[in-house]
Structures are given as C-alpha cells and as structure tokens.
Amino acid sequence: MLTSQWKQDMALGVPAIDEAHEALFDELARLAQLADQHFSAAFRKLIAAVERDFREEEDLMEEIGFTSLANHREQHARVLSGLHHAWAAVDEGDLAQGRHALTLLPQWLLFHQATMDLALAAALEIVQRQSD
C-alpha cells in the first residue's frame, strides 16, 4: 500500500516545493481523521491550498521557461477537476466522494512527485547552477 504520510526521503531538494508537499500530506492525514461535521469546510480549504500550491509551482516553471510546463499544468488541471467534482458532491452532503478523493490524492501525488516534479527540481537545479 502506498503511503499517505510525508517522509523525508520524498524531498526533492527544492525547499518551496518540499514544504508545500509536506504540508499537503499532513493536511490529507488530518482530513482523513476529521469528524463528518467538520469535513466539508476542511475539504474546501484543502482544495484552495492545492490550487495555491499548483499555481506557485506553475509560476516557478514559467520563470525558468520549463519545457514541460504544458504537460505539468495539464496534470494539475486534471487533479483539480477531480477535486472540484468531489467538492460538488461533498457540498451536497455526500462526504464519501471527498473521503474517496483523500485516498486517491496521495497516490497521485507520489507518482507526480517522482516523475514531473523530479524533472522540475532537476531543471531548477540547472538554472541555479547557471546563475551562480
């Protein structure tokens, strides 16, 4: 089974990205334990945090002219679409949709981080070395 908790060996070496990922994994773990009466508001805040983190990551990619920006942005958009669909159900009282999203999101994050975010971290490192 894939982990849904942050582990230090998941770090990519880019503090802004690593801190955002760690906070997101921590929030996912917290929401998974949250009582139903508090879930809806917390789920909406999670979506806002994911939107903010994706936007900040995309800003970094734009700054360096990252060649895979379009593909990376598409993956972000797909996840946000899924979260927004789950939010519509949660907002109507179907918390199971949101809780199910909480089981899928860590798996996607791990894969995304090990592929697309790793490539971004390498590109950021190259840009940093060139500017030194």
Automatic annotation (TrEMBL):
<dbReference type="InterPro" id="IPR035938">
    <property type="entry name" value="Hemerythrin-like_sf"/>
</dbReference>
<dbReference type="InterPro" id="IPR050669">
    <property type="entry name" value="Hemerythrin"/>
</dbReference>
<protein>
    <submittedName>
        <fullName>Hemerythrin-like metal-binding domain protein</fullName>
    </submittedName>
</protein>
<keyword id="KW-0408">Iron</keyword>
<dbReference type="GO" id="GO:0046872">
    <property type="term" value="F:metal ion binding"/>
</dbReference>
<dbReference type="InterPro" id="IPR012827">
    <property type="entry name" value="Hemerythrin_metal-bd"/>
</dbReference>
<keyword id="KW-0479">Metal-binding</keyword>
<comment type="similarity">
    <text>Belongs to the hemerythrin family.</text>
</comment>
